[in-house]
Amino acid sequence: MTWADLSLIAPELALAAAACAALLQDAWATGPALESRSRGPAAAWIALGGVCAALLLLGVRPAGAAQVGFAGMYVRDGITRVVDLAALAAAGLGVMLSPPYLERFRLPAGEYHALLLLSTAGAMLMGASRNLVLLFLGLEMLSFPLYVLAALARRSRRSQEAGLKYLLLGAFATAFFVYGVALVYGASGTADLSRLGRAPDVPLLHAGVAFLVIGLGFEAALVPFHAWAPDVYEGAPMPATAFMSVIAKVGAFAGLLRLFPQALPQLAPAWGQMLAAIAVATMILGNLAALAQSNVKRLLAYSGVAHAGYILIGIASGGPAGSSAVLYYLLVYVAMNLGAFGVLLLLERRGEEADRVEDLAGLLGRAPWAAVVLAACMVSLAGLPPTAGFIAKLYLFRAALQDHRVALALVGALTSVVSVYYYLRVASVALSAGAADAVAVRHSRFAGVGLALAAAGVLWLGIVPGAITALVQQAVQALR
Amino acid sequence: MPGILTALVAVPLIGAAGVALLPAGRVRAVRAVGLVTTLAALALAAWVWARFAPGTSGLEFEERAAWVPAVGIAYHLGLDGLSVSLVALTAFLFPLALAAAAGQVRDRVKAFVVTALLLEAGLLGTFMAQDLVLFYVFWEAMLVPMYFLIALWGGAGRAGAAIKFFLYTMAGSILMLVAIVAVYLGSAAGGGAPTFDLPSLLREPLGVAPGVQAVLFAAFAVAFAIKMPVWPLHTWLPDAYAEAPPVVTVLLASLMAKAGAYGLLRFCLPLFPEASRAFGPLLSALAVVGILYGGAVAWAQGDMRRLLAYGSMSHMGFILLGIFAFDVPAVQGSLIQMVNHGVSTGALFLLAGYLLERTGRARTDAYGGVAATAPALAAAALIVVLSSLALPGTNGFIGEFLILVGTFQARPAAAVPATLGTVAAAAYLLAFVGRVFHGPLRDDLRALPDLRAREYAVLVPLILVIFWVGLYPQPLLVRSEATVTAVLRRVAAAHGPAPRAAPAVGSRAGGGERTP
Amino acid sequence: MSGEAIAFYVLAAVTLGSGVVVVTSPNVVHSAVALVPTFLGVTGIYVLLSAEFVAVIQVLIYAGAITVLILFVIMLTEGGTGIRARQRNEQGAIGAAVAAAMAGLLIAVAVRTPWARLPGTLPTYTPGAIGQSFLGPNLLVFEGTSVVLLVSLVGAIVIARKEE
Known about the structure:
The complex is a heterotrimer.
Chain A lengths: L2 H6 L1 H21 L11 H19 L6 E3 L4 E3 L1 H20 L1 H6 L4 H19 L4 H19 L6 H32 L4 H4 L6 H18 L7 H8 L2 H26 L4 H24 L4 H22 L1 H27 L1 E3 L2 E2 L9 H4 L1 H14 L6 H15 L3 H26 L7 E3 L3 H19 L2 H10 L5
Antiparallel strand pairs in A: 1-2, 3-4, 3-5
Helix pairs in contact in A: 2-3, 2-6, 3-4, 3-6, 4-6, 4-12, 4-15, 4-20, 4-21, 6-7, 6-12, 7-8, 7-12, 8-10, 8-11, 10-12, 11-12, 11-14, 12-14, 12-15, 13-14, 13-19, 14-15, 14-18, 14-19, 15-17, 15-18, 15-20, 15-21, 17-19, 17-20, 18-19, 18-20
Chain B lengths: L3 H18 L5 H25 L8 E9 L4 E7 L4 H18 L7 H20 L3 H22 L4 H29 L11 H6 L6 H18 L9 H7 L2 H26 L1 H28 L3 H20 L4 H32 L10 H4 L1 H14 L6 H16 L1 H26 L15 H19 L2 H21 L22
Antiparallel strand pairs in B: 1-2
Chain C lengths: L2 H22 L3 H21 L3 H25 L15 H21 L14 H9 L3 H22 L4
């Protein structure tokens, strides 16, 4: 290990340091008491500092040729850069949107922020993996904190159930992943992703890849590995739901990007069909199931499933076009999904989460800006211009048609029409007249800034996407 | 003046931002800012319309900037003979609609004005965009505000009507998006860089197989046909028109339907000339069915706004018929008829709105003898109805006459049944006037007030335009002639004979009268 | 059949058989104790693969520490040793079918794969070599694992901490 290696992982180190600082600060402020008393914003500020430091360290590093470190395990290239950006955006928004909720529902702030930061670091490691072992470690570092976050509300049985469910199913999926790593190693004699391209095309390799897809597909909530998502999303405390809904996708799709278009282009003919079939099933099932939901968390869970299907279009299409579409979609998804959750986090129904659609009624009258942000995020999730969701979908359709996957583009298009129904229902309830008297709106400057940033992202990526499209385009230049 | 088209889109957006920053309680200020904004846009549009140089088929006031260079999407605006009058129509109707809305929309006024201004920006952009993606952005960007206008301020069945409207149009337009991407990829067949830019795409034939061209044409045409709407894709229309607040119905019928017809002319014909010719007979037949079906169903409606909705659909059939006659006078007639339909149908829905506002009654048989207590209202209604019936001297005559004359030349089999549509229009519209305004005055309508000053201010400009176009249509005709000829030459170049020459403008209708 | 193959099948049978007891026995103590032969069977396979160090660690940590820990937890839980739980539900048949299909698939894959003999010698799994590897090429993974362990600790404390 050299200083060069250390400077490669500087953003991850900043997050880990901030996580430890948040834990220590919490312990210091709590003293000998059994339960954390620090619900002030100190932990949030420390976490935000860590995220900002990581962003800064990301920014000062000149974009250029790929740099490899840690004996070829870790790579910092264009893809790493965009994945880091998406993960850090998720962390930053997750930190900014949660304080009012943490305070009201008395969740331990130190642990919450520490786990959030470490999970972010895990997703970033996945995006920087050049080795299956590191990819596995990143997956674990991503998902372990999420299991705990899901169970963070100890007074809520539903939260405990969500945590346990997520842990058991997650461990099961991870076991598949490890087995897949072993099989791939057995078939190719290497765990180095950059050398898999020369692996002999034997059945064992395909079996191993299938298991890797199961492990990553679970985290991304692809059909048929999505069954955990609605229950866990619904049971977990809402800030945890919000964060996991985006970070798990960032990590999982970063992993799939590293695996498919990059490491195994020679399997594209066989695996493109397979992934396309999964994408079609995921889009259809996610959107149809979301239609029937009256709980916003469940609705967004199925919507997350549907979006996983959309993003998979990019992976299945492969090549630079598909990969850049995936990267762009991840950035957009972080902004729009966290924007939507951010508004819900401000609401409270008689000491409980306000997570039913009808709780949003009359929001325009009481918190006009929040209602407008929610509507903008819903419009973007539905993929309508002039928001970011539209450009992201345009990119995906372009990738699919370029790869002559017309059916994939058509299913994506038609299921987007279905999705409009449930997204616009939420938006129009939020903008409608009438007041749900039981629902209170908490105002918080911290969360307000977070919401403003999310909304700005949704509009910026939709109206002037030039800078970011150039970034993702540049990121995938090396792919062919 | 460079940047004027951008200014035209930006003015409503800036106005919307300005309104959004006002406190919600200051309703008068909100309305005033909204009205001033739309008037400013009207001033710009009028300037553009006046300065538009007729006789060229190319784009004027063109603006172009890179938008997403990574995939070749450009911010490209421009006006030609197809769009200049529609832009003017849009800018003309919005101040009237906002003024009329003052009497109809009383809650969440601020949100209403903001949404309406966003809709105006979307519509203006739709008519000016010259890049396929930019067009799609504006196209959908007008859909979203329209959804909210119906869903939030509509009648009892608003939620269902709004989502039905949205799902229909979205289903069509998202297939168009896929087709747009396919066109983009097809444009690289010659080896160049793919592009979304419409003028660049038209420079050489699209590199796709004829079968693929037919599919792409269908994807575009269905999106536009849903919006117009063309029979049998019209089933969203009665609910949306009847449930939307009356002023929003005005915008739906007058402007949004035009966007569909405009799209056919702007994209389908030039991009897919062979497929257009191949599908021409089918679309003409659908147009005739729509004319007759709309007329017949309108006649059977008891609900005032459903009657007008089906009538509007019947009239849109004439526009479709004219477009697919591939004949210069007919297409010019269609373009004029788009403006006419915007003005006349808009005025009809406004009048229906005024009646609803006064009594809350939707059915025609709940009225009777209104002319006795509100003579000005009745007179205005009669003028507008006569213009809808294409009485000579009004705008409707010019448009329908040109369309039918052109179609008789090109497709006599379609033109003959279509003339029946004008008869049907007379039947249902005069029945409407008779039932509502004539006959014995109902006792419960004795206190019905006549037009107020504000309502005069809305109706008088519309009636002036009805007569202006009816007596002196030349300014509209000269503006569209060159572009229409160029588009049809493209279609004709695919196969078949060259299009007929342009009509001797001004000599046929209005007899050279110069009275405005 | 060579002696090595016989040893492998015996060890595999022990592992699988006791594994089945773990997941089917209604008595929680039986389940916990059945873990021991499972782990020992795996240990034997490690020995067959000449990874002696890993085998020793497996015995120490899994068969020794983990199982004992689990038994302690059961004993310390109120009524723990008496817990009788039904481990199967109505979806057992589906699960079995899926598992059988998966096994069939894997066996087919293993049979159809031409197992190339890769060049080079077997790496040495001595404690020294493993230590070198942890602090050399695999440093990032080693350090990253410590972060995962930290998360597990925090998680355990968060979930187990007594409420005020």
